[in-house]
Amino acid sequence: MSDKKSTIDFGFTEVPLEEKVKRVKGVFDSVAGNYDIMNDVMSMGVHRLWKRQTIDLSGVRPGHKVLDLAGGTGDLTKAFAKRVGKSGQVVLADINESMVRVGRDRLINEGIIGNVEYTITNAEALAFPDNTFDLATIAFGLRNVTNKDKALAELYRVLKPGGQLMILEFSKVTNPAFAKLYDFYSFNILPKMGKVIADDEESYQYLAESIRMHPDQETLKQMMLDAGFDKAEYLNMTQGIVALHRGWKY
Amino acid sequence: MDPKLLEILVCPVSKTKLVFDKEQQELISTSANLAYPIRDGIPILLEDEARQISAEEAEKYRKQKA
User: Fold this and answer.
1) pLDDT digits (tens, 9 = 90+) for B1-35
2) CA A68 to CA A88: how far, in whole Å?
3) Is residue A114 left, alpha or beta, with left meaning phi > 0 and alpha meaning psi from -120 to 50?
4) Domain A7-174+206-248 adopts which CATH fold?
5) Residue B65: predicted pLDDT
6) Is A176 on the interface with B (CB under 8 A)?
7) Domain ranges of chain A
8) Is the Cβ–Cβ distance between A208 and A20 less than 8 Å?
9) What's the whole-model pTM score?
10) What is the pLDDT of residue A132?
11) Domain count of chain B?
């Protein structure tokens, strides 16, 4: 084990491996209450379109079992709960208790009950049996996971044969001119907005940094194949600000 | 806790079935000797948050399961 890296990125800062999970927890404990409104403001509402496209491509049907990992405040869970119907089941799982509580309260308020379950679990050690889910999603969560290879292998394990994983995550902008503009926005405007709206500049600075540290489209696709997925592909959204990776277990 | 949820939960460490202790609001892994808390109806299936239980305690739950 001595040749293994003992530190990992937390945004642009290198931290000891065991430190990342605590720091990420700090960020999400801090942003949970304002998470939904900040998503709208920061992405100018476009995050809704990214999620909508993910849902449309999911192929979820009545009776399906869906895992919404890093499901946070429940955007995808809400949509899937409507699609799987009474005979289906959606499990909202997240490592962060604050986020799940906000999500559960919100979904209950909106009348989404009966086919949604809530659990706190670590993506690297999922608490579900093998071959359980027809679909697993992780939207804007993989970036924050310390050991991504382990998480991908766990997601593969809990999928049924024929099941699909969908990873929605910030990725690498493809057009260089647009990339410049996006960088300026991310590092100069975004943290200031975090300060004004959520009084939390640091968390949004981390957000911008962690996006730049995340593996690009091709790298993540290869990581999925290495983790065991039998087929993997991706599509870019909004010039690659976000990519949707899909992997299948046969 | 919802039995439909319990059905699809396993111990994240040993990947074996869990025993629900309603009184203590805990989920017990008799193979990893761990008790996972349920807070406000939400099971916390994190190894770091689990309570270590003794072999005797685990045995007691194992009998209960059988």
Assistant:
1) 788 899 999 999 999 999 999 999 999 999 999 99
2) 13
3) left
4) Rossmann fold (3.40.50)
5) 67
6) no
7) 7-174+206-248
8) no
9) 0.93
10) 98
11) 1
**Chain B CB contacts of A117 below 8 Å:** 2, 4-5, 8
Two tokens, residue A171: 């990725």
The conformation of residue B13, written as its DSSP 8-state character, comes to: T
Range of the domain at B58: 3-65
Q: Does B40 touch chain A (CB under 8 A)?
A: yes
Q: Mutate which of B34, B45, B47, B49 to test chain A, going by most A C-beta atoms within 10 A?
A: B45
Q: Is A130 on the interface with B (CB under 8 A)?
A: yes
Confidence grade of residue A4 (pLDDT, cut at 50, 70, 90): low
ipTM confidence:
0.96
Q: CATH number of the domain that B18 lies in?
A: 2.20.25.10
In single-letter form, the type of residue at position A226 comes to D
pLDDT tens-digit map of A172-203: 999 999 999 999 999 999 888 888 887 888 88
Choose between A33 and A84: higher pLDDT.
Answer: A84
Q: Which two tokens stand for residue A149?
A: 């290879």
Average pLDDT over residues B45-58: 95
C-beta atoms of A91 and B8 within 8 A: yes
d(CA A200, CA A88): 38
Give the separation between CA A67 and CA A84, rounded to whole angstroms: 12
What's the pLDDT at B66? 58
